[in-house]
Specification:
Distance between the termini: 32 Å
Strand order of the largest sheet: 3-4-5-6-9-10-11-12-13-14
Radius of gyration: 21 Å
CATH superfamily of the largest domain: Aldolase class I
Shape: elongated
Number of domains: 2
Largest sheet: 10 strands, mixed
Number of strands: 14
Oligomer: single chain
CATH architecture of the largest domain: Alpha-Beta Barrel
CATH class of the largest domain: Alpha Beta
Order of helices and strands: EHHHEEEEEEEHEHEHEHHEHEHEH
Strand content: 15-25%
Helix content: 25-40%
Length: 344
């Protein structure tokens, strides 16, 4: 049985053709799934009863189960979803004045093993399907209401997106197709810790969306202690991949840098970062560490983050402090999933 939300528009057209439907039915079905966000084929009222029965026999619409939702005083909502196989993932809705962002997960757990990330402590279970990624958007949009349209999606939740490339690519196709979720490609960001083959594939197959690279350090010795995957793809190889990437000043690569007290936050680190990214169209997001119980790191003091930021600006590198949202809830990646597991 086909999970129908695993099909991009071309695959959906092929599927309805196999069922003996007229070609225009693919667009109708897509609109029911992604514009009206229905939960069952019975709701597709412009299809005949016979057609709906056939769809019910040949396809399924798997719906995520909401386990828990936490809402912050700043409006941020953290969702814990259960998948059909019982595994759990997280999504975060982040409201802004002029837009709304959803952070989605791409894997159950994460194989990257970053030392400051709570998700890494649970290891890696499996990749999410395209449908399970897209369903996070549909479920959250249904929950927050049509008057708060989610315009931006960031693939920065649980998992390493470029180690699940095919499903992430298909999810992006579904999210950005005009007959499906119809998001602007400029409003979709895919983040990676530096999976070089994935960056190169993204350059060829998915370069209309934004690329973000979680760097977090300026030397291999330093980075290997907090991002173990650096042993496989060291900083030099990542920088070469970024120089190959088709970026420009209108579509810059985002460098994500979590500030860890006494680890990667010195002015020397800032000057090394300048040298690493010189000549690459980038902007840098400096991220205050969001601590969790038992975390082995402490946040860098604000004044030290601002000094680090000034070094970058002094060298004409756009650098912004991305303040954490949802500090009064389980907003750090993996925190809500871990908390619920302990209470179970």
């Amino acid at each position: 049985m086909v999970d129908i939300k695993n099909l991009n528009i071309e695959e959906l057209k092929d599927f309805v053709k196999e069922l003996g439907f007229e070609p225009y039915r693919a667009k109708q079905i897509a609109q029911w799934l992604y514009k009206k966000r229905i939960k069952s084929f019975d709701e597709m009222t412009n299809l005949s009863k016979k057609a709906r029965e056939l769809l019910s026999r040949k396809a399924r619409i798997d719906i995520l189960k909401t386990v828990k939702v936490e809402e912050s005083s700043d409006g941020t909502r953290k969702y814990l979803f259960e998948l059909p196989d019982g595994n759990r993932i997280e999504s975060v809705f982040i409201p802004e004045k002029d837009w709304n962002t959803l952070c989605v997960s791409t894997q159950v757990g994460c194989p990257a093993g970053c030392k400051f990330c709570l998700t890494a402590k649970d290891g890696f279970t499996r990749n999410l399907t395209a449908a399970e990624i897209v369903d996070q958007y549909i479920h959250v949009q249904r929950d927050v209401g049509e008057n708060r349209r989610i315009s931006n999606v960031v693939f920065m939740g649980m998992g390493e997106p470029l180690l699940n490339f095919d499903n992430v690519k298909k999810a992006v196709e579904i999210m950005t197709h005009r007959d499906m979720l119809d998001l602007s490609t400029r409003k979709v960001t895919v983040s990676t810790v530096g999976v070089v083959p994935g960056i190169d594939r993204m350059a060829k197959e998915m370069n209309k969306v934004k690329l973000a690279v979680s760097l977090h350090a300026t030397t291999d010795e330093q980075r290997e202690k907090i991002v173990p995957m650096n042993r496989r793809w060291p900083i030099g190889e990542i920088m070469k991949a970024l120089r190959r990437y088709p970026a420009d000043n209108n579509r810059r690569i985002m460098i994500e840098y979590v500030m860890l007290k006494g680890v990667n936050d010195s002015l020397e680190d800032a000057r090394r970062l300048v040298k690493l990214i010189k000549g690459i169209p980038v902007k840098v997001n400096l991220i205050p560490f969001n601590p969790y119980p038992g975390a082995p790191f402490s946040p860098t003091p604000r004044e030290d983050i601002e000094k680090f930021q000034k070094v970058l600006w002094d060298h004409n590198i756009a650098a912004f402090i991305r303040d954490s949202r949802g500090q009064d809830i389980s907003a750090a990646c993996g925190m809500l999933r871990t908390k619920e597991k302990k209470s179970a």
